[in-house]
Amino acid sequence: MDDRSAVKTDIGNKDFFGIVERPATIGLSVLIALKIVLLFALAYRSRFVMDEFGQVGYAKYLGNGLFDTVQPAKAVGFTVFSKLAILIGWDATSIMFVGRFQMALLACATIAMIYACARALGQDRQHALAIVLILLCFSNVMERIFRTISEPLALFFAVAALLVAISGNSASARRIVFAGILSGLAFLTTQKSIYFNVALGMGLLVNAFIARQYGAGIKRGAALVLGWIVPIAAYCVVFGGADPLPIVRGLIFGPVEVASRGGIEYGGLRRFVLQTLVHNAILYAFCFGGIVLGLLRIGALEERQRIALTFTAVITTLVFVHDQPWPYVFIMALPFMALWSLAVPDRNAADALPMRLARASLVIAGAISYISNVLYLRIDNPAQLALIARAEAMVKPDEFYFDGIGMLPNRREPSTLWLDQYYILKTLREGSESEAYKILSNTPPKVIIWSYRMDMIDPVIAPFIRDSYVQIAPNIRMAGRRLRSGRLDVFKVPFPGRYNLYTTNGQPADGKVEINGTPRSLPLSLEAGVSDVVLRSGPAEALLLPEGNYENLIVAGEDNAELFRGVYN
């Protein structure tokens, strides 16, 4: 007999649907397939979160002073993964799409492993498919798991680690070492994965305590730590070479600054906990109910179920008390919570009325989720993609741009300054001593991509923007000056080079320019510093810009304030 079918507890009663198994299985498979189609549609269409640009963009520094440039110092497991997108993509837009589809494919693998976990815990095919469908009905999963951030990759390794730990009849030392290796890989993706490591360790210890196998528990704990250390040590040697200690310090202490200050500077992040609970109230009720039911009877469960249930309870608690509960953080717990979503209705399968109510509730929650997925497509990304395509065309590979969020993953930045709320406030406090001030003072970029975060530090950087950069398209500032015929304009040239005259639609303009009282022929060679510029002939209005081809790139229009609005709704 298959050992999975031998696991018989009321966590896994097989009469929940009351439908002939084959049609139900086909129906569930079709609904899951539709969800997968929606997942890829969302990956293609959904508006990017700022973190997605930054985390993919870090990959361009891989092997190029990464540990000196990326702030704060952190594990770069996700950077290695996202490097593939940069190698495959041919421009900034394609890089972001490749990254999104990488994550969507990875999500499919994670979902498949959740199915395998459900089967390993004794669920039949129909129940395992139902668990997968319930997981895909959570808004956080459908809206976040494809994003180019580190949590989905860490989740992949964490689910794999749990699957390894609960496969087979007993958690052998060899299997636990392998699970530890996978947990270590999750940690190297993001140190937030320490939550997964703690949860798996607790699962092994609680199971050993309940079974009174204290010696075996100690051995399994040691095996888990040993497995965890293997990829960590390899990582430090590979990236640190003969001097791995700085890498070790970065792994251990790099995230401490972020973790210790929490999300205080943002304020109100707990609202995202309420948001996810409200958006998915029915689903959470089933999941929390199943976890509680399992914990009340944990002593009667089989070993694999005890490990998985403890893992789920610990990771759920850690995620929901996390002091920076951004919506994407919840995907670290939801796949494991879904494993217990059918426990309460299965426990009451003999009662017709509760069963009908349970089925009706899940059908309602599922219908709402499909509608919500379609509606979320309205928070789309064409404006973002048009902006990065336009900005990329203006910046050559050897030139610098700056935006504080890394929107061009294939172009150079003078610094990897990440303008989150903490660094915005830090910039405002430090003023002329801030990194943003020094960037524009010492390494002025050719192009600045403007967003609300740049607006927030404008009091500090305004002296370097005013009279040095000109808005040539919505959300784009370029080194240069707007000139009007016969009017003297002060141009604080940010960097030396060849400049030319262009019409307001990007065409080269014929005209004569006077610099500091001296007529000059075009194009001009200008030194950094302050110059008085007068447009003596030519169009009534023109742009003095670094020499280049700006045809179809310069357009009039105000900044788009909607670029990042609604991404966390």
UniProtKB/TrEMBL annotation:
<feature type="transmembrane region" description="Helical">
    <location>
        <begin position="307"/>
        <end position="322"/>
    </location>
</feature>
<feature type="transmembrane region" description="Helical">
    <location>
        <begin position="24"/>
        <end position="44"/>
    </location>
</feature>
<keyword id="KW-0812">Transmembrane</keyword>
<feature type="transmembrane region" description="Helical">
    <location>
        <begin position="281"/>
        <end position="300"/>
    </location>
</feature>
<dbReference type="InterPro" id="IPR055483">
    <property type="entry name" value="DUF7055"/>
</dbReference>
<feature type="transmembrane region" description="Helical">
    <location>
        <begin position="193"/>
        <end position="210"/>
    </location>
</feature>
<feature type="transmembrane region" description="Helical">
    <location>
        <begin position="328"/>
        <end position="345"/>
    </location>
</feature>
<feature type="domain" description="DUF7056">
    <location>
        <begin position="425"/>
        <end position="478"/>
    </location>
</feature>
<dbReference type="Pfam" id="PF23158">
    <property type="entry name" value="DUF7056"/>
</dbReference>
<keyword id="KW-1133">Transmembrane helix</keyword>
<feature type="transmembrane region" description="Helical">
    <location>
        <begin position="222"/>
        <end position="242"/>
    </location>
</feature>
<dbReference type="Pfam" id="PF23157">
    <property type="entry name" value="DUF7055"/>
</dbReference>
<protein>
    <recommendedName>
        <fullName>Glycosyltransferase RgtA/B/C/D-like domain-containing protein</fullName>
    </recommendedName>
</protein>
<feature type="transmembrane region" description="Helical">
    <location>
        <begin position="357"/>
        <end position="377"/>
    </location>
</feature>
<keyword id="KW-0472">Membrane</keyword>
<feature type="transmembrane region" description="Helical">
    <location>
        <begin position="153"/>
        <end position="173"/>
    </location>
</feature>
<feature type="transmembrane region" description="Helical">
    <location>
        <begin position="103"/>
        <end position="122"/>
    </location>
</feature>
<feature type="domain" description="DUF7055">
    <location>
        <begin position="482"/>
        <end position="546"/>
    </location>
</feature>
<dbReference type="InterPro" id="IPR055484">
    <property type="entry name" value="DUF7056"/>
</dbReference>
